[in-house]
Design goal:
By secondary structure, the protein is an alpha/beta fold. It has a single domain, classed as 2,3-Dihydroxybiphenyl 1,2-Dioxygenase, domain 1, CATH 3.10.180.10. Helices cover 17% and strands 33% of the residues. A hairpin with a 5-residue loop joins β3 and β4. It starts with 11 loop residues before the first strand and ends in a 5-residue tail after the last strand. This is VOC family protein.
Length: 135
Amino acid sequence: MPATKQIGSSLKVLLVSDLEKSQEYYREILGCEVTEWWVIRDGFTGLALKLLQAMSQEDVRPNPPAKGVKRSIDVYCYIEDWKALDDLYEEFTSNGASIVIEPWIDEDNGPWKEFAVKDPDGYCLAFGGTDGPKF
């Protein structure tokens, strides 16, 4: 294993059906900085996506649910504490985001709190974290 950090961040590439509509959603609803190339919030170590115009609607394929899970998730964002998570939820709902998983707490894991939104193409973005010491 290398002695120094080599990867500073990564991003998810999403094929979208309407690039301008998707860019507007991420800018206006999720409060992201949107450029010709990137969709970012809180820098490249926060939410970082690259949206590309799909050649056809069939190429837009959000993840199916995993075995034993009811909902699929395409992008997961770790949030530092529950206050920040609650603030994001309030911001997104006031901006008109489609909430597909209402905030809930998993007492057995962390405890962990999360919620999720869907974008215009059905990609699910989840946001969650612990509220206290990191494990």
